[in-house]
TrEMBL record:
GO cellular component, one term: nucleus
Protein's recorded name: Sodium channel modifier 1 zinc-finger domain-containing protein
Composition skew (Polar residues), residue ranges: 130-140
Entry coiled-coil feature ranges: none
Composition bias type Low complexity, residue spans: 144-153
Domain Sodium channel modifier 1 zinc-finger: 22-47
Region Disordered, annotated ranges: 60-89, 108-164
Protein's organism: Engystomops pustulosus
Length: 164
């Protein structure tokens, strides 16, 4: 029983208890024992019918795939369907590589020449030097700097004062 074609359940039709029919062969031979069916499955006629069966099955599968592809191409050309994801990704990468400058991103802002980089430099610009201010004088609240207004990250102000 070392048969590697179709499974037993797909190639055998049980008619009544002691009778089995081969569903691969077009002439549907009927056998009374499983041993006789096994002998038939090793025969030349059954192997030829099995090859024809697989050819028809492959041709049918190819025809279905061909029709699906034609539908997909028609829908893509008509603009009803988005292009394939890999094709779309390849187009984006190609366009990005051909650009001379980076595309505009609304989250990124240019920093001015007077401003430093990062959060630490903006907080240093807000705090006045300790040696210039006298301990008894207080400075009025200053409006927020441009670094605070253009920063895309949300800031929490729990105290309410900019200077402490």
């Amino acid at each position: 029983m070392g048969y590697t074609g179709l499974g037993w359940s797909l190639s055998v039709y049980c008619m009544s208890f002691p009778r089995y029919a081969c569903t691969v062969c077009h002439h549907r031979p009927v056998f009374h024992t499983i041993d006789m069916l096994s002998v038939h499955r090793g025969g030349k006629k059954h192997v030829t019918c099995l090859q024809n069966f697989y050819k028809k099955k492959a041709a049918h599968r190819n025809e279905v795939q061909k029709r699906r592809h034609e539908e997909y191409v028609r829908a893509e050309e008509a603009g009803e369907q988005r292009p394939a994801p890999l094709l779309e990704q390849t187009r984006k990468i190609t366009q990005h590589a051909l650009l001379k400058s980076a595309p505009y991103n609304s989250c990124c802002t240019r920093k001015r020449a007077g401003e430093g980089r990062g959060k630490d430099s903006s907080s240093k610009a807000e705090d006045p030097p300790q040696s210039l201010s006298s301990p008894g004088t207080t400075q009025p609240d200053l409006p927020p700097t441009t670094a605070e207004t253009t920063c895309p990250e949300p800031r929490s102000r729990s105290t309410g004062d900019i200077l402490s």
